[in-house]
Amino acid sequence: MLKPIVAAVLLAAAPAAAAETNAALARIDADRAANEAAAKAIWNFAEVGYQEARSSALLQKRLKDAGFDVKAGVAGAPTAFTATWSNGTGPVIGIMGEYDALPGLSQTADPAKTIRSDVTAGHGCGHHLFGVASASAAIAVKDWMKANGAKGAIRFYGTPAEEGGAGKVYMVREGLFNDVDIALHWHPSSENSADVQTSNSNKSGKFRFHGISAHAAGAPERGRSALDGVEAMNMMANMMHEHMPEKSRMHYIITAGGNAPNVVPDFAESFYYVRNPDAEVVRETFERLVKTAEGAALGTGTTVDYEVIHGALPLLPNRTLQTLVHAKLSQVGGVLYTTEDTAFAQKIIPTLGQTKAKLSDAALVEPMKESHEAGSTDVGDVSWTVPTAGFSTATWVPGTPAHSWQAVAAGGTSIGMKGMQNAAKVLALTAIDLFQKPELIAAAKEEFAERRGPDFVYHSLVGDRTPPLDYRNAPGK
After folding, report:
1. H helix or E strand, kind and range, residue 370
2. Residue ranges per domain, the chain?
3. Fold of 4-199+314-452
4. Distance from first CA to last CA of the chain, Å, rounded?
5. In the record, which residues are listed under signal peptide (predicted)?
6. What are phi and psi of 319, to 5 degrees?
7. Is the pTM of this model over 0.90?
8. Cβ proximity of 408 and 371 under 8 Å
């Protein structure tokens, strides 16, 4: 339950005139064409984690042109950056933006599965919308601060490689959030919601087996198959599923298994994810997974080494902030479809399989509730460092799952762009309210301290490794 003083502050009229807040929304509306052009450019780039050079540069230029102080290549990642606009001593509000695409989801902006010929990746999580909306909001808040003499700083975080590269983790570890009072984020979705949400912690690793090549028919006894090592590990890992904590999840792919059936492969690689709501359970399960790899190597006469690729803590929720964000999301409202949008959506719906979602759901804002997201995000590490809140807007056709070709398609249309504009407005309104109402920041920090506990010490799941800048490259020896 919210404390009475916090509830009263949330319901109170803003100190500044409504016209001043409306000016921030008007700025976002005025930037619609620029926002859509930037989002479509990043959608077309479809750059994967730590390789988002053009996407990052586009956002950096836009913020620099708007008067922000841009620091590029932070935390050891060339595509990571911060952009700050300061107006004296006061609260520091951070807004996060992502821009990496997913491999293997190349798709046109059509309601039928159609692979693009120019890229091999796609924005199946809508990060092209994420980064642009957040930057637009930061600029609108800067304009409002300047016009009204509001003290403090607005800071945009350009965070690369959310999809399995944990870009934010390295930024947290570098101390880049240490002076931030409140951090905000959002995410593309098939619905409009701002829940008090937790998520799964996650740790991943690539397991590389090394064997001895030989002719698979002429001299098989002289070979030792690295693929045998991978398959033996996978078999034992699947046996682990029966003996893992109930809420755990583990999944993998084979990224390299050899080049020809008649050559005993001397190199093979698998890529594993381990998840659980508890980060300590993830640590323990990953250690067990390492033992299966070592056992597989011993049994197949191969050797194995592994590389931790990423790790993320679960989201630490903050009801105080989520109540504010939900109020702003309700104020902005959902996504309204045109006739053209409806025609596109009606063609997408049959491809989604069984879904109870209706097209009219895009216009609704879901009631705020407590929920758990089975996926993972590197926002989790930020949320254990600074009070953090987020939300989703309906950038996809209702019922669309993330990481799908349907999400890529809708994200390249006016449906995605409308959800992006709404997200920018919610972020701006939330940040402005926080600058106006220091009581909310204090209450959020009090809740944050209570949830985190007095004995919490931050430990990253990636340890002391440097950012895995090549994790999306083809496997090698």
Report:
1. strand 370-373
2. 4-199+314-452, 201-312
3. Aminopeptidase (3.40.630)
4. 54
5. 1-18
6. -65, -35
7. yes
8. no
